[in-house]
Amino acid sequence: MNEQRPTTDLTYDDVFLAPVRSGVESRFDVDLSTSDGSGTTLPIVVANMTAVAGRRMAETVARRGGLVVLPQDVAPEAVAEIVSWVKSRHVVWDTPLVLHEGDAVADALNLLPKRAHGAVVIVDDRERPLGVVDERCCTGVDRFARLGEVADRDPVVLPLETKPREVFETLHQRGSDVALAVNGSGELSGIMTRRGALRSEIYTPAVDSSGRLRVAAAVGVSGDVAGKTSALLEAGVDMLVADTAHGHQEKMIAALRAIRSVSPEVPVVAGNVVTAEGVRDLVEAGADVVKVGVGPGAMCTTRMMTGVGRPQFSAVAECAEAAAELGKRIWADGGIRHPRDVALALAAGAASVMVGSWFAGTYESPGDLQRDEHGNAYKESFGMASKRAVTARTRSDSGFDQARKALFEEGISSSRMRLDPNAPGVEDLLDEISSGLRSSCTYAGARTLSEFHDRAVVGIQSAAGFAEGRPLPSGW
Ligand code: XMP
């Protein structure tokens, strides 16, 4: 056995933030913009997991200032199509769900859970809005009834240029839930709820130099990394992520060199590591941001299978310090289950926090909404090293090779992620995270995330101390 690590390492539940004298009076005085080259205005990155990160997630999260990393299992042609779709979205108005008068109520009921705004717009053959259908319109109605018979024919329709504050006031006056936007030709161009209008005044979208929503993609570390890098850059991705469970390995270093041979400029995130040495080696090979986390993920079985990993708070603190010495940043990846975990990761020095499974149970994740035996809505999540993901990734291998690779799974193949009835959309979760984080900053007297890292006072607590902080009845 080699020399043991000399410290007792800690994770998020082991630590707490102490309040310090503060001159920051309002949560709205806090700026949550990042400084890691991701161009985000909220330090939240959605993990490159097939069950979590797709086009609707990418659009929705970027509109609120975060970033989604498209999974490496998506073929470059499909990534190109998704990226161009995301970049064609309006930065303020949400994308409507659209059907026609002759479609059935059942069609609307199937579509409604795809988006949090809860409405399907009925359009004519020139894309002009005729009405709106929501769940109320469909209640107690034959599933085969035509939408033209049940739609609300008098929706709020506004010019696309209308400011969110005015949208809010109009909806408030009319007692309506959603407003539709039309362009100069009267074509449907967007949809906004009252809460969406409010959010648009609070969040700032993450946009590229042309003002379009940002999106990142994972490049993988096997095969033709340079070729895949060129294809992704051609597709217009704003940031590349090269990650594997054990990022501190020769294959990762070779992959980083391959990426850098194609583009010295594109911001590159690499990982995952949990030590200062890992950070230094990946930065030396070309990483701008190092991703930290081995085994904390909700779908991970690595620590139980191998004993390998490191409690996440200590891993983040050590790696962030090592990266800062080189003028670089880190992302804390995995194990985020509450808003407090985000605040603690940033206090430890992370520039952004990566979230996977927590966001799987939302309207915007790619899976279909399902119901359990008690009628609760859920979506399925699975790990990217699970038998299910590995089998899908190795589809073109021989049956034997595919089975052999799937034998060494280190992830959960199926887990039910319940949609929280009080927070069923990813934006509801972003609201919880950002309001918690803004408040943490005011407790620390910080107006920016870098001030927060400098000023945060972190203490260590017992399990009883952590339990004391959980409200009763406990939904947390
Ligand atoms: P959360 O906790 O947010 O973590 O779901 C997301 C991160 O978990 C990692 N990940 C895995 N790790 N086996 C693993 O060991 C897996 O199957 C797996 N799937 C995801 C990954 O780093 C992700 O960003």
UniProtKB/TrEMBL annotation:
CDD domains per record: CBS_pair_SF, IMPDH
Pathway(s) served: Purine metabolism; IMP biosynthesis via salvage pathway
Active site: C300 (thioimidate intermediate)
Residues noted as binding K(+) in the record, renumbered to the chain: G295, G297, C300
Enzyme Commission code: 1.7.1.7
List of residues binding NADP(+): D243, T244, A245, G293, V294, G295
Reactions performed catalytically: IMP + NH4(+) + NADP(+) = GMP + NADPH + 2 H(+)
Keywords, sorted A to Z: CBS domain, NAD, NADP, Oxidoreductase, Potassium, Purine salvage, Repeat
One CC-aspect GO term: cytosol
Family: Belongs to the IMPDH/GMPR family. GuaB1 subfamily.
UniProt cross-references to PANTHER family, sorted A to Z: GMP REDUCTASE
HAMAP family in the cross-refs: GMPR_GuaB1
Descriptive protein name: GMP reductase
Species name: Actinopolyspora xinjiangensis
